[in-house]
Design goal:
Layout (H helix, E strand, L loop, with lengths): L28 H30 L5 H7 L5 H4 L4 H6 L9 H26 L7 H29 L7 H24 L2 H7 L12 H22 L5 H4 L7 H12 L2 H13 L4 H14 L3 H21 L1 H4 L4 H30 L4 H35 L7 H28 L1 E4 L2 E6 L5 H7 L4 E5 L1 H29 L16
Helix pairs in contact: 1-6, 1-7, 1-13, 2-6, 2-18, 5-6, 5-9, 7-14, 12-18, 12-20, 13-16, 13-18, 13-20, 14-17, 16-17, 16-20, 17-18, 18-20
Organism: Aphis gossypii
GO biological process, one term: acetyl-CoA transmembrane transport
GO molecular function, one term: acetyl-CoA transmembrane transporter activity
Length: 512
Amino acid sequence: MIKITHISHIESLIEKHETPVKANSKGDKKNIFILLVLYTLQGVPLGLSLAIPIIIQNMHLSSFKEQAKFSLAVWPFSLKILWAPLVDSLFIRKLGRRKSWLIPVQYFLGIFFFITGYYINEWLDNGSKLNINALTLLFFVLNFLAATQDIIVDGWALTMLKKQNISYASMCNSAGQTFGIFLGYNLSVLLISESFWNKWWRTSPLPDGIITLQGYFYFWGIIYIVITTLVAIFKYEKDYLTEFDAINLGILKTYLLLFSIMKLPSIRMFTIILFTIKMSFCSVDAAFKLKLINCGITKDEIASIDLLIIPLNICLPFLIAKFTSKEKPLKNYFNTIPYRLLFGVILATIAYLTPYFLVQTGSLLITYKVFLVLMYSFQQLSVNIMTLTSMAFYASISDPKIGGTNMTLLATISNLGNAWSKTGALWLIELLTFKRCSNGPRQFCSSLNNQNEMCSLFGGTCEVFIDGFYIETIICTIYGIIWIFIFRKIINNLQSKNVKEWHVEIKSKEIY
């Protein structure tokens, strides 16, 4: 039997058994709880990485160029396959294959939470100037450690749970990471918000929320260190090499295998699809919430809207399981694209009209907010359907003999396509936005030649007269429509290919 040691939570869905075994959580409840806790810890840095752009945009300290730079902080989750073979192959046998990495990685996470907490206030308001470079670097390190923890926990879940309960690994990953993102994003934004607590909970106004952002980082630093210590002392790890009669490909052979998969014609074409499709939605995906804040929606309201979406994200996989399990998941993925484009245009229109509606009162304002939440929910529904159907397709073409390496690779390519398109979208918005000085209509504002300072010097302010967000949304939508016509037949062809065309042939003698 050939098996790669690192299998992600989605890959576990494709393990084939000759005789179906019904899952039974009895005897694994403690392990399920531990996995939920570890996946929750994994989601916290991701959540905080979502919160920081909202916080700095609300403070009116960041440009879209700075937001683009900070978006690089989440790239480790798109690149983790580059070092996953190292994590799988190097370990201390006495300590355990997974604990050899988990213990130091989570201790480092706790330490870096303390470091970030110590400097966070200085970086956010360094003489009214945002230190985006320091923020990006520290959050990149946090997400690098969290992505490494993801590799570790995904692999440990396969040996921690009984064979008949392996399916619980995906549930633990989804629920735990979603809850962690909630704790890092929604909860942090609301807990540190002065306006939220003064408006809804306090009888008399007080400065700050019920906790500072610095205190929140310190809190999680303590949580990481305490939980890691408890896992190190009390959680025993099974000997993987004893428990499973598996063969490890080793570092070099794993990288060579990935390279061989990438050379397959089907994989090459599908890589092009995954790298190009996200450009159709990148403007709205990357900047819609930031644009709402610029238009007058508060960060508290943004966090509250996202809070309403969390139950949808948790329940959706169960609600549309029948839809995503059909024979042609890639076709369902393709058919969802027009709806996502449509809802993207609607959301951009809502953002454009937001300043008008915010000055209204009564039923008109309530109608606007209900429509905003409803359209945003539909847009997120289309996003999640595309994600789930793509995962179903990855599972259908993955080769279980090599632990689903096809799937890991395709998921990484998809994540990378998503990351680069969002980063590029934020940079381009800045370039497509044009401003002019309020006391000189013919005097344009640009940071490249100090025209912003000149405008301020003469008592004017730089005002936007062409907004790059809306220009980019139009460009992306047109691009998406063209993309649909170009790739329609290609996607149908890929869906109809024999599954063997997605696999590489591995001779057993090459594994040893």
